[in-house]
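Per your request, structure below.
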C-alpha cells in the first residue's frame, strides 16, 4: 500500500480518547518509517467526523479509535458510506463485540463458555437492587455494557459496594452488566487476520485488571507465553479463535479470557481495535510471534477493506450450485 495516502484516525469522544491518541501516534510513526504517506486525523467530540474524513482525501483509514463511536461500528459505517477502506472488523462485528450483552448471547449460542451475568438499567430502581441481585452472590464484577479499557469496571463484595459501583457505571452507560466473579488467571490472546498469534498472561498487582492497571507502567506483570500446560494453552487459543468467529470479527483482535485452576476457561470479550501503546498487549503477543511493531502495523494496514461491498458467495454454496446444475434430480448429499 506504499503510494497510498493513509489516514490514521485517532482521538474520538469516548473515555478512551487519551489511549487512542497514544495508539494513533505510535501507528503513524511506524507507517512513516515504512515510507507511507500518513495523515494524522484527530477527531474531537465537536467535529463533523464525516466532513473531516472526506476532506482528508485519504485512500485508506487505519482506525486507532477506542470506545464509543470509534469501536462500535459507527465510524466503520461512515467509512463504508464514504467508500474508504478501513482496518479492523465490519460494522456488524464491531457493534456486536462492543456490546457486552449481545456478545455474551452469541457466545452462549455458539457454546462458548462465558461468566453468567444479569443486567441493571437506568430505568431500574437502585432501591430494588437486592431483590434483583437475589442469590447471585458475591464477589461480583460490575461493568458498563458498551465501554472499553475496563472503564467503570469494579469488583464488589457486598450490597453497599454493588449499589455504588452500579451508580458509577450508569454514568457511563444506560445498561450495566453484573457478572459473576471467577477466581482465575487473566489471559489475552492475539488474533491477526484469523491467525492466532499466542496468549499472554496478565497479573495485575492490585488484583483486578482495570484502567489503571492497563495503562500505568509497573502496575501489571506480564508472562509471555501464558503460564499454562501445553494442552491447556492450545485449548485457550482454540477458544479465542472460536469467539472471534462467533462475532464475525476480522483484522487484528484481542480476546480476553479467564483460566481457572480447575481446568475451566471463560471468554470475557473480543476487542476489535486493540490498543497499540507501549503497555498494550497485542504488540507484546505479536512480538513473540515474530512481528516487530512496524511489521504488525503494516500487516494490519494490508488487510484494510470495505466489508459491505466485497461479500462473496461461500465456496461451499458455489459447489452446491454447480452440482445441482449437473444433476438437478440427484440430492446434494448423494451427488457427493
Amino acid at each position: 500500500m506504499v503510494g497510498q495516502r493513509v489516514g490514521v484516525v485517532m482521538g474520538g469522544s469516548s473515555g478512551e480518547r487519551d489511549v487512542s491518541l497514544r495508539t494513533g501516534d505510535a501507528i503513524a510513526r511506524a507507517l512513516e518509517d515504512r515510507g507511507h504517506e500518513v495523515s494524522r486525523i484527530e477527531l474531537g467530540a465537536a467535529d463533523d467526523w464525516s466532513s473531516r474524513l472526506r476532506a482528508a482525501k485519504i485512500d485508506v483509514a487505519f482506525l486507532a479509535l477506542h470506545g464509543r463511536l470509534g469501536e462500535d461500528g459507527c465510524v466503520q459505517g461512515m467509512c463504508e458510506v464514504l467508500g474508504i477502506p478501513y482496518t479492523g472488523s465490519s460494522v456488524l462485528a464491531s457493534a456486536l463485540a462492543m456490546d457486552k450483552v449481545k456478545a455474551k448471547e452469541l457466545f452462549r449460542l455458539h457454546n462458548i463458555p462465558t461468566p453468567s451475568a444479569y443486567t441493571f438499567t437506568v430505568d431500574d430502581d437502585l432501591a430494588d437492587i437486592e431483590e434483583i441481585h437475589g442469590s447471585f452472590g458475591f464477589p461480583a464484577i460490575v461493568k458498563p455494557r458498551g465501554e472499553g479499557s475496563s472503564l467503570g469496571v469494579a469488583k464488589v463484595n457486598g450490597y453497599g459496594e454493588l449499589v455504588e459501583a452500579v451508580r458509577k457505571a450508569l454514568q457511563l452507560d444506560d445498561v450495566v452488566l453484573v457478572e459473576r466473579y471467577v477466581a482465575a488467571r487473566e489471559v489475552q490472546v492475539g488474533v491477526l487476520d484469523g491467525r492466532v498469534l499466542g496468549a499472554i498472561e496478565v497479573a495485575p498487582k492490585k488484583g483486578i485488571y482495570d484502567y489503571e492497571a492497563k495503562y500505568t507502567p509497573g502496575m501489571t506483570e506480564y508472562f509471555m507465553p501464558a503460564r499454562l500446560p501445553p494442552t491447556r494453552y492450545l485449548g485457550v487459543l482454540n477458544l479465542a479463535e472460536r469467539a472471534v468467529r462467533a462475532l464475525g470479527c476480522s483484522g487484528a483482535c484481542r480476546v480476553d479470557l479467564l483460566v481457572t485452576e480447575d481446568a475451566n476457561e471463560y471468554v470475557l470479550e473480543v476487542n476489535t481495535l486493540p490498543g497499540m501503546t507501549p503497555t498494550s498487549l497485542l504488540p507484546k503477543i505479536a512480538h513473540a510471534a515474530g512481528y516487530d511493531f512496524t511489521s504488525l502495523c503494516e500487516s494490519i494496514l494490508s488487510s484494510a477493506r470495505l466489508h459491505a461491498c466485497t461479500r462473496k458467495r461461500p465456496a461451499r454454496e458455489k459447489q452446491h450450485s454447480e452440482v445441482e446444475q449437473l444433476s438437478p434430480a440427484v440430492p446434494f448429499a448423494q451427488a457427493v
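The chain has a mean pLDDT of 89.

Regards,
D.
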